[in-house]
């Protein structure tokens, strides 16, 4: 942001949403054409940046699965072979821990990073942390032992934790409740896009036969270089619509005023312990966390072990990488489709979430129970349809962030969702037990099926909680003046009787 635009930004009232200094406590009429123009500019600025940013988060996690096919396992002794048995037994526990330690690092970073994003300038925090992330990513190429990789993965997860929570809070501060479903799905859809893009890049790196570095080292150098460029862009990210330098003064006013009806607020930099206490004892936050932890076990196994498992079916290294394309394409399509439908129709998000769980369960069952013969088709098909998990997780993010208000509470919800995300990603790789390969890793597939049943049950419970609370609030008297006044007081969803839950 320029010095002039900072000087022209209204100063937030202490303890209240910063939007109140711009639009006040009374409702205002805004020109629909100005509003539409403001939304279009916000979309053009934020959405491509967030797609690219979260794509990098996914890419440098997922490339571990491809890097192990390019010699990393041998170079860093990530697998141990016991030649005393016939056939030789392969132990992949070190690879499992290399995958999981990333998420332990993310667990350690989520709450402090989320606090920093609330308290300080978003652009400066994001920009600085992302540039550090770029350096850590490139340093993977310098790792020579599995212990060094463990350390690198932990700190990589720590700094990357700034991205998902930051993006969730940005979307909830710039868009209405009805718009958030599609916008949250847009940036999260890069999970699918970068599965394809990353697979294409890795396929290209697989052709390298010369040079002074191993093929897996080139992958990490490229990922780090792209991340550095994104870090430079992050420095111009505005805190909220109030300070969106790419909007005119009239457009900024419209961008803020239009958020009044949803009662979710824009941004408040004051940390409120009362909101934290409320969040800790709010059952819906923990139901959402349980849903996320259960749903993301699939990613922990797929991103770290997917290409390796596919190669078990007799496919070459290159073919195993190419089989990531249908998985990524389905993931991308389902995320955007559920996001679009969630923005188009009211209160169908939990219903769609449950529906997307069913193909994942079916895919796991197909992989587990089909024949793993040479070039087997059935397990590859089952592997591909597990890509429906992307829609499940995207909907969990949207449901979680659309159903809380109060900036401290929203920040806590965002961090908790991704703490649960980390838990799921830690559990997933640990279910891959090498000695059970001949039995098709039964602990993995049975464990994932159980997790998705838990996700369905938690989703149904959350639906009942939100529906019953809305019915109670609908019976209360309505004062339109109070509704307009409460919108930017930085009240939580429980404190504000005009807040309505979406499901």
Automatic annotation (TrEMBL):
Pfam families: MFS_1
Source organism per UniProt: Cylindrodendrum hubeiense
Main location: membrane
Bilayer disposition of the protein: Multi-pass membrane protein
Transmembrane segments: 42-59, 95-113, 125-148, 154-174, 186-206, 218-237, 285-309, 321-341, 348-368, 380-400, 412-432, 444-466
Keyword presence, Repressor: no
Ranges for domain Major facilitator superfamily (MFS) profile: 46-470
Subcellular location field: Membrane
InterPro entries named in the record: MFS, MFS_dom, MFS_trans_sf
GO cellular component, one term: membrane
Protein name, per record: Major facilitator superfamily (MFS) profile domain-containing protein
Entry GO MF terms: transmembrane transporter activity
Keywords of this entry: Glycoprotein, Membrane, Transmembrane, Transmembrane helix, Transport
């Amino acid at each position: 942001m320029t010095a002039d635009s900072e000087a022209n930004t209204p100063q937030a009232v202490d303890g209240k949403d910063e939007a109140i200094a711009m639009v006040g406590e009374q409702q205002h009429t805004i020109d629909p054409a100005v509003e539409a123009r403001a939304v279009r500019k916000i979309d053009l600025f934020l959405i491509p940046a967030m797609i690219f940013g979260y794509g990098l988060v996914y890419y440098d996690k997922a490339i571990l699965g491809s890097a192990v096919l390019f010699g990393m396992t041998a170079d860093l002794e990530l697998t141990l072979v016991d030649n005393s048995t016939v056939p030789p037994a392969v132990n992949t526990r070190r690879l499992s821990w290399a995958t999981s330690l990333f998420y332990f690092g993310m667990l350690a970073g989520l709450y402090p990073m989320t606090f920093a994003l609330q308290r300080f300038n978003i652009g400066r925090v994001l920009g600085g942390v992302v540039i550090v992330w770029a350096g850590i990513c490139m340093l993977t190429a310098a790792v020579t032992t599995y212990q060094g990789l463990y350390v690198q993965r932990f700190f990589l997860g720590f700094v990357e934790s700034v991205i998902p929570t930051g993006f969730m809070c940005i979307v909830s501060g710039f868009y209405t409740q009805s718009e958030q479903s599609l916008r949250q799905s847009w940036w999260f859809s890069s999970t699918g896009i970068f599965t394809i893009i990353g697979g294409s890049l890795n396929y290209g790196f697989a052709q390298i036969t010369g040079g002074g570095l191993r093929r897996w080292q080139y992958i990490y150098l490229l990922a780090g270089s792209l991340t550095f460029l994104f870090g430079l862009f992050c420095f111009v990210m505005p805190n909220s619509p109030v300070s969106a330098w790419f909007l005119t003064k009239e457009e900024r006013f419209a961008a803020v005023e239009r958020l009044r009806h949803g009662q979710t607020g824009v941004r408040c930099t004051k940390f409120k312990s009362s909101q934290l206490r409320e969040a800790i004892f709010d059952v819906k936050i923990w139901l959402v966390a349980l849903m996320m932890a259960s749903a993301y076990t699939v990613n922990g196994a797929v991103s770290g072990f997917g290409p390796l498992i596919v190669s078990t079916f007799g496919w070459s290294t290159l073919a195993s990488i190419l089989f990531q394309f249908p998985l990524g394409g389905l993931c991308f399509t389902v995320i955007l489709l559920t996001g679009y439908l969630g923005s188009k129709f009211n209160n169908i998000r939990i219903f769609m979430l449950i529906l997307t769980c069913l193909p994942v369960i079916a895919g796991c069952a197909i992989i587990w129970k089909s024949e793993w013969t040479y070039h087997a088709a059935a397990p590859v098909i089952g592997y591909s349809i597990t890509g429906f998990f992307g829609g499940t997780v995207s909907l969990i993010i949207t449901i979680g962030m659309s159903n809380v208000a109060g900036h401290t509470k929203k920040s806590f919800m965002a961090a908790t969702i991704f703490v649960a995300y980390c838990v799921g990603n830690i559990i997933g790789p640990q279910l891959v037990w090498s000695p059970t390969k001949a039995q098709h890793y039964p602990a993995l597939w049975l464990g994932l099926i159980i997790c998705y049943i838990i996700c369905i049950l938690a989703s149904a419970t959350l639906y009942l909680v939100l529906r019953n609370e809305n019915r109670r609030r609908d019976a209360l008297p309505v004062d339109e003046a109070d509704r307009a006044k409460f919108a930017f007081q930085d009240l939580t969803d429980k404190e504000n009787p005009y807040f309505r839950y979406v499901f």
